[in-house]
Amino acid sequence: MVKKLTKEQQDFQQYINKKKPKPPYIKNAFFAFLVGGFICTIGQFILNFYISLGLTFKEAGAPTSATMVFIGALLTGLGIYDDIGKIAGAGSVVPITGFANSIVSPAMEFKREGYVFGVAAKMFVVAGPVLVYGLTSSFIVGLIYYLFKL
Amino acid sequence: MADRKIGSQTIKFNKPPSIIGTGTVVGPKEGIGPLKDYFDLIINDDLYSEKSWEKAERKMLKEASEMAIKNSKIPFANIEYFISGDLLNQIISSAFTARELGSPFLGIYGACSTIAEGMGLGAILIDGGYADNLLVATSSHFCTAERQFRFPLELGNQRPPTAQWTVTGAGAAVVSSDIKNPRITYFTFGKIIDMGEVDSNSMGTAMAPAAVDTMIRHFQDTGRTPDYYDLIVTGDLSSIGKDVAEDLMKQKGYDISNNYTDCGIMIYNNKQDVHSGGSGCACAATVTCGYLFKQMLEKKYNRVLLVATGALLSTTSSQQGETIPCIAYALSLENL
User: Fold this and answer.
1) Domain B183-334 belongs to what topology?
2) What are the pLDDT digits (tens) for B25-63?
3) How far is A117 from chain B (nearest CA, A)?
4) Could you say which of A23, A82, A92 has the minimum Cβ distance to residue B160?
5) Is B290 helix (H, G, I), strand (E, B) or coil?
6) Quick check: helix, strand or coil at residue A65?
7) Do residues B207 and B328 touch, judged by C-beta distance below 8 A?
8) What is the CA radius of gyration of chain A?
9) CB pairs under 8 A between A and B
């Protein structure tokens, strides 16, 4: 159990919160919109490309995701994705390329601790929570959907 | 009877020990900063031709230590103790460097305040008559600190404006009973001050009250005023923390705005994308052993108060929602 703050600490926190500069929300949101939109546009091109090869819209989804994951992983490996992320924030975190970045970056970082306890064990250190809660919530939503359809 | 203790937390040295030589190694980013001319060695690769960041950090620590001994012009065998600490779990950089150096070793942990804590303890050993020459050193590395305390380097995330940049580098100093300038005249121990900050991305504001507490204690114990010093330097509060410290000092009736600066602000220029400034053990250490020491040798400054601060948190305590306990040690460096 974390201790409750004393009056003196609370007053100091209030004072500090006024002192701390706020992140540039509008600028961040603008770049997130721009970069996020750009990544999705690339995704659309790739999707159209797979459709032009004769896949249906539904079938083209999987190879598109795979290609985007590959691009995200490649840019992470080349040391470019973190620079994009610094400017774009959520704009490059939310798309599937960001998911690739969150898995490849710890895998690279912990390679020196070996392939078992380093790469494999640490690979999901950032993406793990996303997977756990993503899968759990999709299961619950699916269950609700199923029950309502009955 | 403790005749060298004055007031409640300060030690006044009978024969003030001297700093007779220093060594500093910094990374490429620090090597293009405003203090670049004051560092002994600037490495051009963060890995320093090693296989891991941790190995690179300890190589810097070893080189800085050897350089300090060389610059102090005493034989290596005369080093009676090696006092060192760093940020990595179980202070491995220090212990592994001590393994290479082979001197009797005292490992300490004061986070970013380590250099002041180490020099203070070293001065006590010397003035107490327990040694004639000893080495104090510390190091930090942006990449080792990031992976231990934060995220993988290549993860594309944004840092808040209050965040600080861990200095890549190492600083070392030989403290001696030889009579030379600059001297360590007073050492004020800090108490743990915790004003309820939980945000580990805002260390400057967390540590500012600790710096203020130690500074006021120092002035009360010694009877000195802020004007006595040519320069008062806190060790890594950075821009926001420095503001807070100045404010708090003013509230307590001490105006330090004329001669006060902070290591975290000095080491980088504001175009270097470090948010509020530098941090890490090497921040106060390289500024002190590099810039301050050399300025004091040239008598540009004759009386400097170094107040190095440390945030004594761990990733575990942060994740469990604990507030950050902070400390500051004040060291009075003077040309006598």
Assistant:
1) Peroxisomal Thiolase; Chain A, domain 1 (3.40.47)
2) 999 999 999 999 999 999 999 999 999 999 999 999 999
3) 15
4) A23
5) helix
6) helix
7) yes
8) 21
9) 96
